[in-house]
Amino acid sequence: MISNLKDPVSQRLVYWNGNLIPESEARVSIYDSALMFGDVAFEMTRSFNKKQFKLREHLERLAASAEWLHIPLTYSIDEMEEACNKVIAANDPQFAVDDEHRLMINITRGLLGIYDGRVDVPSGVNFIVADFPLRWTVKGSEHLYEEGIDIFIPSQRMIPAQLLEPKAKNRNRIHYLMANIEASRYNGKNVWALLIDPDGFVTEGTGSNFFLVKDGTLFSPEPRNILRGISRQHVIELAAQMDIPFREKNLEPYDLMDADEAFFTCTPFCMLPATKFLGQNIGDGIIGPVFNKLISTWGKEVGVDILAQAKSWKGDTSPVENQAATPYAFATKSQNKLR
């Protein structure tokens, strides 16, 4: 069906409402509420040494997100976990020995009422689990572990909780994309967007949580206008184990300028350092000791050298090389850079 597909793992299977179907056949209807409204609760997970990390916590948050969206989910946490494990077992023989399973779990409301019974599509909620090699998510960004991110604050603001609840993980993310488009036009290297809320306080990246370090204390934005990330919570727990002081507080852009270290957390990368803010060094402009201690401890805990694993995928030939948008960047050849 896709004649130019170069990915050697091209026959992956997807869990779709109780059945395993080919990935190429897994399609949501154009009349699904997902397409009409971005009406989807979702989670992304990853494995370490092929073992899923905090899958249960992700599924519990998924159920809470579906409940907040009033999507009538009929699967229990146990049933969703069973479905995830079924997908992994079906696809694992096709995964490279050194690869990891990145699950994408989606719950859509299904057909809008005006189409129900009028189109040849089953009605009702869709529960979908796709299994994609993690290497293709991480590949191309492994240098960030050594060089660090340059933080850019776009004009696009984070949508605050009183307007749209960010703690329920859903697909209404056009504000993330607009922030990425603006960041892609900033004339810098390794640029990631960091959003502030309408009150001017730092919130999160476009699919990642944010931390900074000052005088040995770890800080993160108050969890009011952010997604309360699984990776974020794990870093907080690691900090407690390592006796690193931690505080949640309202952070302003000035605090980035005055920080000793800064970093992002997200499921695929775990942690990524930020060494610059608008081109100026954060601290000494190098990867800081708190970041190094945290990611090293995380790696030992799961039995994977996280940095080494990401770097090991650097030499792979990507199945597709193009200028398409990613969750972390947006670029087109015709865009003019901001000075």
Characterise the protein shown here.
The protein is of the alpha+beta class and 339 residues long. It folds into 2 domains: 121 residues, Aminotransferase class 4, branched-chain amino acid transferase, N-terminal domain (D-amino Acid Aminotransferase, Chain A, domain 1, 2-Layer Sandwich), CATH 3.30.470; 169 residues, D-amino Acid Aminotransferase, subunit A, domain 2 (D-amino Acid Aminotransferase, Chain A, domain 2, Alpha-Beta Barrel). Helix content is 27%, strand content 23%. The chain contains 10 helices and 16 strands. Helix 6 links the parallel strand 8 and strand 9. The N terminus and C terminus are likely disordered.
Short structural summary:
The protein is α+β, with helices and mostly antiparallel strands and 339 residues long. It has two domains: 121 residues, Aminotransferase class 4, branched-chain amino acid transferase, N-terminal domain (D-amino Acid Aminotransferase, Chain A, domain 1); 169 residues, D-amino Acid Aminotransferase, subunit A, domain 2 (D-amino Acid Aminotransferase, Chain A, domain 2), CATH 3.20.10.10.
Q: H/E series, N to C?
A: EEHEEEHHEEHHEHEEEEHEHEEEHH
Annotated CATH architecture of the largest domain: Alpha-Beta Barrel
- Which structural class best describes the helix and strand composition? alpha+beta
User: What is the strand content?
Assistant: 15-25%
The geometry reads as: globular
CATH topology of the largest domain: D-amino Acid Aminotransferase, Chain A, domain 2
- Summarize the biggest pleated sheet: 9 strands, mixed
Rg is 20 Å
Low-confidence stretches: 1-6, 332-339
Q: CATH class of the largest domain, please?
A: Alpha Beta
Oligomer status: single chain
Average of pLDDT:
92
Q: CATH homologous superfamily name of the largest domain?
A: D-amino Acid Aminotransferase, subunit A, domain 2
Count of distinct structural domains: 2
Number of DSSP E strands? 16
Q: Count helical runs.
A: 10
